[in-house]
# Entry
Amino acid sequence: MTGIRWYHLALWIAFVAIMFVMPQLVSKGTLRIIIMANFLAIFAISWDVLSGRTGYISFGHPFLIGIGAYTSAILTKRFDVPLEVAMPIAVLMTMIGGIIVFLPALRIKGSYFALVTLAFMELIYQLVQVIRPDLTGGTRGMSGIKTITRGAVSNYYLSASLLIAIAFSMWLLMKTQLGIALSAIGMNEESVRGSGLSTTKLKLFAFLTSAFVAGIGGAFYVHYLGSIAPRALFDINFLFTIIVAALIGGASTIIGPIIGAFFLTFLLEFLRPYLPGAERYFIYGMVALLLYMYQPKGLIALMHTGWNKLTGAR
# Structure
């Protein structure tokens, strides 16, 4: 592995320590907000592994999350499959479904790739409502889905542990030569191909890794909520929030999507009393746009610059 220094690991240890003591510092209501931020961070990391690294912008990520969520929900709700069996199957189905649908799309570039992925998200949104509504719940979705644990504190520790495990694993992976090659595709795919590496295999690996994380996140997410509805899961605001979290936090960094997810989640909660409807998405979209225009590399770059100035002043 390359680029790992002692202060990187020190920051990870500090992050884990803060997350561990959080229930002693905030109310249960705030914990529930952080739980949603944890899940958004997982989804943003999943998007970042593919789109942030390779530059292939995906507008169909809720498709992957939806496969994981619906598979686990159907298995546990309709067929009484134990959670410990249903969730790994859900992750596997996410990867298989993703390969079948998205692999052809990896052969196209730019806006065409984005449009194809968006079309697949809309397709599954329609299919879930009309094909076997006795299984999927149709337009109403499903409720009464088994939950893994109960209570704000227990769910917080579960979501936080999941986020830490995924984030640290993806961070280590991106520090390897394989991760560097994925980043190189985003900078100049032709040069990577000219060096003798198979860009198709690299992109497939990025996509499978992204689908793996999305499947895990989707499965845990539905068993936290205890319900699922196609209108919420495949909503354009949900897609928009995932992408914006990764971009304003700092794409292609793994850490940036976590920062962006927490920033957006708490911003939306702050705006909720003043704008209870969808109008708050317009406000946070404007805030995100201004931040991105001011610093395209995201909040993590702003924090890094501030830290450099602070230590330089000393």
